[in-house]
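Q: For a teaching handout, I want to show students what a protein-ligand complex looks like in token form. Below are the inputs, and the small molecule is fe (ii) ion. Please produce the holo structure.
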Amino acid sequence: MSIELFRQGRHVCVMFARLGDEGGDAVQSNQFLLVNGDTGAILDPGGNIAYNELYLGMSRFFPPHKLAAILASHADPDIIASLDRWMTATEAPVYISRLWERFAPHFCKPGKTSGRVVGLPDGGERLRLGQGDDAFELWALPAHFMHAEGNFQFYDPVSRILFSGDLGASLGTTLNPEKPVKSLAEHIPRMEGFHRRYMVSNKILRLWAAMVRQLDIQMIAPQHGSPMVGPAVREFIDWVEQLECGVDLFGPANYRVPA
Ligand SMILES: [Fe+2]
Ligand SMILES: [Fe+2]
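A: Here is the structure, written as tokens, with fe (ii) ion included.
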């Protein structure tokens, strides 16, 4: 099912949310399509379960050969396991951390990715994608260790949506990804357990918070669960900034030889 998050002229952001999977084998996950005129980008295309709907959704806006980029926040299976099919069906390069540049081809048949993996440097980059009048910007922001070693988030300066990957993810049966969250308080139970275990450390969250406070963010769109808008954006930044997680919480009790 697709949800239009933003539309202004020919600039459109669409979220594809698989609703049926929560409680099943595969975790609910979101994929994003950014359209600018007759071109666009796919953000975190997802696994093979997500491929058909996303491909058809994209084809409603522009033909597959017009796809300018596939962007991967990191290299987890729910982010990029469908890469082989995208490499076959389109001509677009895939942008991913330099750390995963030579790992991503393992998702594909031999040779499929040659010359088409663009490694993003640790510092990130303001990417200019597409050509001519339809060219557009998308900023790759450092998000390392949230939770992968080489990790990026993507900021669209037109819609001012921050596509945050696994940061801001919410899970559970009370979730409705169609409905953006405006106030964080009642949403925290859907996020807390995930962030405490999947995010690496509070130090990283504080560094991230200081970086994103410099941006005008209208929406945080995570790769699982509901987007956050309005007051929930600042409330989320404040919340994760003080959250203890990952290595902050681990000690000798977590490293015992199993009986
Ligand atoms: Fe992940
Ligand atoms: Fe994920």
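A: Two things your students might notice: The pocket of fe (ii) ion (ligand 2) is lined by residues 76, 78, 166, 223-224 (CB under 6 Å). The chain has a mean pLDDT of 95.
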